[in-house]
Automatic annotation (TrEMBL):
Record flagged with keyword Cell cycle: no
Lineage: Bacteria, Thermotogati, Deinococcota, Deinococci, Deinococcales
Residues of the Alanine racemase N-terminal domain: 20-215
Modified residues (N6-(pyridoxal phosphate)lysine): K31
Organism: Deinococcus soli (ex Cha et al. 2016)
Protein's recorded name: Alanine racemase N-terminal domain-containing protein
Pfam families, A to Z: Ala_racemase_N
Keywords: Pyridoxal phosphate
Entry keyword annotation includes Plastid: no
GO MF terms, alphabetically ordered: pyridoxal phosphate binding
Family that this chain belongs to: Belongs to the pyridoxal phosphate-binding protein YggS/PROSC family.
Cofactor: pyridoxal 5'-phosphate
InterPro entries (alphabetical): Ala_racemase_N, PLP-binding_barrel, PyrdxlP_homeostasis
Length: 216
């Protein structure tokens, strides 16, 4: 696959869901890729936001190319928040202390990233906010002054399930997250990766985080 093929897949999923073309935006996940590969496989096709999951790697790349649109999609550690200066959107806030650390760093930067709250996906996975804690965390994160734009979720690995069951589980998860965002008045929905983005777009994803498929 390549970026144009992924984009075509996103456009097809939008059309099938009766959504306007372009309402789901591709975030090119570039972790582990050097800037040459990013230029060749991503930026040669247009100006896409770049999603990085490791703070040091993000720091090093974004220092060389601060002009690009950088998103952070990984686990946020207190001592590494300082590396996120060039980030405009953090997809992966899962605790109020992370937002507080970001807001504090942002004072030194003179600009603050917007954030999404990462939801737990109901599987044996340690990351993400439990559904019942979401309204409280949302309140606390807003109190830091950061702009909470939406929700993010990472679907569990369901590759061992028979396809119909896998698709039903993905649809249920993505639809549930979309409903929670809607109920909270949040407009951005970051969901969908290489293996499941058509289901995420069908459920209303506005940001689709695809990595592997862009570089193979
Ligand atoms: C790596 C990663 C992706 C992209 O996954 P691919 O399977 O490479 O498309 C998306 N979201 C997060 C949080 C990731 O860490």
């Amino acid at each position: 696959m390549s970026l144009p093929e992924v984009l075509a897949g996103i456009r097809a999923a939008e059309a099938a869901a009766g959504r306007p073309a372009g309402s789901a935006r591709l975030v090119a996940v570039t972790k582990g890729q050097d800037l040459d590969a990013i230029d060749r496989c991503v930026l040669a096709h247009g100006a896409f936001p770049l999603g990085e999951g490791r703070a040091q790697e993000l720091r090093d790349k974004s220092a060389l190319r601060p002009d690009l649109e950088w998103h952070f999609i990984g686990a946020l550690q207190r001592n590494k928040v300082k590396y996120l200066r060039h980030v405009t959107l953090v997809h992966s806030v899962e605790a109020a202390w992370q937002a507080e650390a970001l807001a504090q760093a942002a004072q030194g930067w003179g600009h603050a990233p917007d954030v999404l709250l990462q939801l737990h996906n109901g599987e044996a996975q340690k990351h993400g906010i439990e559904a019942q804690a979401l309204p409280g965390v949302l309140r606390e994160v807003r109190a830091t002054g950061l702009d909470v734009r939406g929700l993010m979720v990472m679907a569990p690995d369901l590759d061992d399930l028979p396809p119909p069951e896998r698709e039903a589980r993905l649809a249920a998860l993505f639809t549930d997250v979309a409903r929670r965002a809607h109920d909270l008045g949040l407009s951005e929905l970051s969901m969908g990766m290489s293996g499941d983005y058509p289901h995420a777009v069908a459920a209303g994803a506005t940001l689709v985080r695809v990595g592997r498929s862009l570089f193979t």
